[in-house]
Amino acid sequence: MFTDEAMSAVFHALAHESRRQILDILKASPGCPVGEIARQFDVSRIAVMNHLAVLEKAGLVTSEKRGRTRHLYLNAVPIRMIQERWMDDYSEQFAGRLTSLKQMAEAAVQQKDKDNG
Amino acid sequence: MFTDEAMSAVFHALAHESRRQILDILKASPGCPVGEIARQFDVSRIAVMNHLAVLEKAGLVTSEKRGRTRHLYLNAVPIRMIQERWMDDYSEQFAGRLTSLKQMAEAAVQQKDKDNG
DNA sequence: TAAACATGTAATTACATAATTACCTATTTG
DNA sequence: CAAATAGGTAATTATGTAATTACATGTTTA
């Protein structure tokens, strides 16, 4: 299962650059301890721990304590589920329908004008 | 281009169920006016307009004013870019490496225990 | 042209986020 | 065992989010 609330938690977790960086680190070094991650950021260790808590609530990170060190792991399952159940549906709009293609091209131009204006 | 800030804006926009519902509506009915969307929600019209502003800032929705009505369109480009540049990298973890597969299975069990406990 | 309609702006409020410092607990290790 | 190490809690603060009501603006249409 994958409730709306769970999906919100995942998107919210991904909506912060530091948290995305943490996932990058864990992807590259599974089992990395908390302190080693904190050392790679300019903000305080506590701030990083808060980010980790957000990631854990979203199910994107799991942890395992050995002795006094907590080892962290990326869990890509929620990302996979979002991609399968949601992203694919929206990306579809690119292929397939010609009707929406014209409309989306126009929309993209409008957005560009808005950004530059 | 697609900056960290832009990516944060997109994820943040997607992190609210009402905003995801708005995208669903616009996917089904391109050009839908503001009021018609607002009528489909329990919250106030102003609240819906705020959600639309968040979606527009993220580039997920564009609009075009004809007369007194503003017509809204889904723009799936940012979703597509996120999927290509980010989601795919993380979903990869499922295929390919057997080392991380064992680790992720264990992590998933741990997460399940945590949720039920 | 007056009323109805569609949207937009301003001010306000309750709550959540992201960060900080100071302190506490548990585990190694010299 | 004492000191260093790794992590966790608590209290606080500034800022951002999500929602509200009341009012204003511009556009059809009867």
From TrEMBL, chains A, B:
Domain of life: Bacteria
Gene3D superfamilies tied to this protein: Winged helix-like DNA-binding domain superfamily/Winged helix DNA-binding domain
Domain HTH arsR-type stretches: 1-94
GO molecular function: DNA-binding transcription factor activity
Pfam families: HTH_20 (PF12840)
Protein name, UniProt field: ArsR family transcriptional regulator
